Amino acid sequence: MAEVNLSTPFPKARASKRARSRTTAFYMFLLPWLLGLIFLTIIPLILGLLTSLTNYDGLNIDNLKFVGAGNYVRALTTDSEMVNFSLWRTVIWGAFNLPLWLGLSFLMALILNQDVKGKGIFRTLYYLPSVMPAVAAVQMWKIILDKNNGLFNALLSLYQPGTAIGFLSTYALQGMTLIAVWSGLGSGMVIFLAGLQNIPDELVEAAKIDGANGWQIFRHITFPLMTPVIFFQLVVGLIGSFQQLTLPLVLSVVGLSQATVPPRSIYLYMIHTYQQIFVNQRYGYGIALLWLLTIGVVALTLLLFWSQKFWVYQGDYAEGGEK
Question: Count of CB atoms within 10 A of residue 30's CB?
Fold first, then answer.
C-alpha cells in the first residue's frame, strides 16, 4: 500500500492560494485608481454639492450660511445672464460647431480611407493640430485672424483692399468655431477612420458584384455600419460643446496677463460660471451653476441614448454571415 505524503499541499489548497494571490494582485493594481477616484472625484463632488447649498464666497467662513436650493432657484429665475443669454449662446455654439465638426471629420476619414499612395503622411499631418496645446493654437489663430494685422484679412485685401473683418470681435462665434473645428478635426478623423477600417471588405465587394455604385454602397453599407461611431462622436462632442471654456477665455486675453470678458457672441455658459467663481468670488453660486450644467448634459445624453434605437445600427456582423 502506497504511503501518502501529508506534507504535500493538496491541489485544492494550492488552487485556493493561487486564487488569493491573484485577487491580492488585482486589488493592488486597482488601488491607485481607486484612491484617485475616491479622493479626486467622489469627495470633491460631495464637497462641491455641499458648497452649492451655502453662501460660501471664499472668505466668509465665520458667517457661512446654509441656503438650501437658493443658489439653484436664483440661477433659474433671477440670473438673466445665465437663463436668457449664456445658456442660449452655448446651445447656438453647439448647434453651429458640432455638425460642422462631425461632417468634416467624417468626410476627411472617408477621403483618407482610400487606398492611395502616401495616405499615412496625410493622416499624420491632419492629426497634428489635435496634439497642439489649446492655448498655443488659439494664440496662433489670433495672429492669423486679427482684424487689422491678421494674415487672413491681409490675403482678402489682395482682392478687396481695406478688408478688415472682425473674426475675434464682431464674428467671434464664427472665428472660434473655425479654431475649434481645426483643432478637433484630427481626433475626430482618427476615430471615424478606425470605424471605417472595421467595415468588412466582403460586404463592399458583394455590393459591387451586385452592381451597386459608390453612393449606394455608402448609403446602404458604410453609413449604417458607421452609425455607432457617429453616435459615440455625437455624445462626446455634445459634452465638449457645453464644457467649452478654454477657447473663449484665451480669446479674451490681452497681452500676457490681462483678461477681459469675451465678446458677447462667445459669452458661453462656462464663461459665465468662470466669472461668478473667479471674478465675483461667488463659489457657492458658481458651483451650483456647474451642477445645473451637469444635470442638463446628463439629461441630453440620456435623450441621445434613448434615440439611438431609431437610427443607430444595432447588429453585429460575424464572419459566418450572421447578424
Answer: 11
What residue numbers bound the domain in which 122 lies? 74-311
Q: Which residue has the cell 455608402?
A: 218
Name the domain count of the chain: 1
What pLDDT, on the 0 to 100 scale, is given for residue 12? 65
Helix (H) or strand (E) holding 102: helix 87-112
Q: Which of 172, 152, 184, 192 is nearest to 93 (CA)?
A: 172
User: What CATH number did the domain enclosing 86 receive?
Assistant: 1.10.3720.10
pLDDT at 39: 94
Question: Whole-prediction pTM value?
Answer: 0.84
Tell me the C-alpha distance between 240 and 234, whole Å.
10
Q: For 146, left (φ over 0), alpha (ψ -120 to 50), or beta?
A: beta
Name the residue type at position 67.
V
Q: What residues in the chain have per-residue pLDDT under 50?
A: 1, 256-257, 318-323
